[in-house]
Amino acid sequence: xxxxxxxxxxxxxxxxxxxxxxxxxxxxxxxxxxxxxxxxxxxxxxxxxxxxxxxxxxxxxxxxxxxxxxxxxxxxxxxxxxxxxxxxxxxxxxxxxxxxxxxxxxxxxxxxxxxxxxxxxxxxxxxxxxxxxxxxxxxxxxxxxxxxxxxxxxxxxxxxxxxxxxxxxxxxxxxxxx
Length: 178
Description:
ten-stranded antiparallel beta barrel, single chain, mainly beta, globular
């Protein structure tokens, strides 16, 4: 028991103390509204970001997003052509309690682990875990509006607990005229 108390005391002494209180919760239920509708998407994907970080595969297609669940969720579909056809369905849910978004990027019949986050200063940042070549690592997605009818999406991996990030998927999107 004494050993546990000493370890806890050492941990507490080494841990930084948060001097600032948490910012008040922002109601972000409308933060993804800029992405609702039909967009042309230009995707640059890096198939092996840790082995060949400069090798790019390019796709062009259509991304469509619509509201679901009385505005507390979005469903996004992507159909794009490149070396192979890309067909994607993504699900976004707003948690009214935490006021954060929970994002799912299902692949091959598996819903996967969610990325969780929120928007600050107009940029949405969402972090979770993903498996890459048999290793579990951090994954981060960022949404950045670039104009009234355009935005950028970027996904990155971190193999060192968030110290550095390697991009593997960047999409520039432009709203389609009705």
